[in-house]
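Lecture 7, part B: from sequences to assemblies.

Below are the input chains for today's worked example.
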Amino acid sequence: MITAEKNGDTCRVAVNDKSLKLSSADELKNTVCRLIDDGIKTINLDLAGVEYIDSSGVGKILFIYKKLKNCDGKFKITGISPALYELFDALALTALFNIEKK
Amino acid sequence: MRFTFDSLAKINAFNSGFDEFIKDSRRVFLQISDSFPRLERKINDELLEATTIIEYFFHNNQDATQGITKKINALEHELARVSGQIQNIVQSDIVFFSGLLTAIGKVKEIMGKIGAMKDISKEIKLYSINSIILSLRAGERGRGYSALSKSFIEYSEEMEKHAGSILAQSNEFIGYFSRFEAEIRDVGDIQLSRLKQMNSDIESCFSRLQVSLSNSSSIFYDLLKRVDRSKEINALIMVSLQNQDIIQQQMEHITASFRKISEIFFRHRIAEKCAGHNDSESTLHELGDFFCLLSAISRLNSRQLESIKNQINVILGTIQQNLKLFTEKLSDIAGDKNNILNFFISNSSQLEGNSGMKSIFLPAIQILGESSAGFSASLDKKNELSKMGSGLLDQLNSIEKKFSLAGGLNKFFRQMNTIAKIEVAREDLSGGEEDQSNESLHRLTDMINVTFSGLVSFFTEAKRDIETKLAGYAADFSAHSATMQSVIQKTSEAKTLLEQSSIIITDHLTNLAGFTEDLDAEIKKAVIEIANLDSVSNSINESRDRIQEIIDESQANLVQIEEHLGVKEWQVRESDIREYIESYTVTSERDIAAQTYEFLEIEEGKDHEKFTMF
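Predicted structure of the full complex, as structure tokens:
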């Protein structure tokens, strides 16, 4: 389940599932698209509860990053677990995203 | 009575049109039936191609037998092997240095003794002066000895000079050696630390590279699995298409039933009877039976067509719904795939102009580049050291020359000492103060002889030792140099391989970009083909309209016959309809026929006795 807490033009989007894949990834994409349409410019994606991510999750996070970049927005990943950080690091994604570890 | 009867023409027209319709629908169904297995084949082909690419480059198995991972595994083993070689070289340098240090220690010892020799020479000079004074006191008898003492002074001065020169040369040698020693230690330390660093860096970089490739492959495999899973939707479509055979059969039954009616028409000469040549009651009953049967079968066929239309619409709906789902899924996968692939293959300012794939390879490439440069620097240093070793030998040769000069002097000393002893004995100069001084002079001269001889032999031995060690070092240097050149080459090759791998993987991933586009094109083709099924469904209405015309005509004729014979409701025998129904091979057809049978309100037990057409 995805939850969003708005604060001005910033929003904390939390993934409240152990895995970010298929349906939750779709929900994340749709939620973020709606938020960006509503004028949100900064998204802090909270992955504190996420232990597993698949191609769908990685694809959607890259999508959000690109979408925000295209509208001069800001994107940050927060609460990421060491294991997930290692995965992101191995994929060189840590150099792309602004990541705040747990 | 005369009846207007165009139904035969209508039946024939219907059958002829319906045959065409059946052919068309069969063609459409065949086309559609071919579309989805073709789509599945396309998915399988694309998956195979993509899997082959990914397996080739990212095989995340340590025992990989192919591809980049195999090469990287081989590289890691090769680098571990060559780092072992470098370690041997460093160890050998350390052993050499330790041996050389011992040999040089001997030279240092010689220096101490040369210092002592210098002191003895000074003492000889003092005793010689003393001997001159004493020999002068001895008058004429001491003249010879006095001359000898003067020579002793000269030679001792000369010897002191030589000893000083040897000492200075040895000091220079020691200084040179100290620099040599420092350089060797430096190179050894640098190599050892570089080796340790390189081993640790390469190990961590290669391990990270393998983890990265493994994770990348997992992401790509996952994408492929999602495409593979989407085949389930295709399978559902194919299952729904299985009903097409039943539909075709149902269509053929419709034309078969009308053909049967045509046969009855001719067998019972219905046209002739309709023309009104025989108006007997039995003829009218026969015509009534015929029109009733024609009407009943036409209604049944109309219901059948409606059912066929519904079935086609169900198939169409299922296919369209599943195709929509398929397209959505594929579009989602394509979106993720594009985002992921773009990250891996496109340069990004966030990644300092590199792509994700290049960034994955970059640390290992940098480490290999640094290691290669470091080993080149070490090799240059060893080259310098080898030259310094030659300089060390030059220094030793120079000391040896000085020893040789001093050796000539020593020979004189020895001879003079003998002459001096003879002179002392001949002129009877022994006894008293002279005796003690002369004794000291001779003792010192003997001492210088012994010391010098010892020094020469000691030096010769040390020099030989140093020469042997330096020759060994020079010989090893050649082998070490070749090994290090090979290590440099190997690290450089490894670096090139990784650079190329990064480029090749990027190129192949670029090819993967077309993966879902090809499938998307295939689905679009299927969507167009499905639209033909819609027109098949719509053209069923035309056929139903034609049947309705037959029903209307039959009903109109029946009404006339009913009025003439005074029969209220014309009924079809259940057994006749049942016979008709029995000819159906499909359960759904029978169900429809049974429903139609009820709809026609055919009453059991009220069979018309002249109803004998079947």
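Note for the exam: The interface with chain B takes residues 22, 26, 54-56, 58-60, 62-63, 66, 86-87, 90-93, 95-96 of chain A (CB under 8 Å). Keep this in mind when comparing with the next example.
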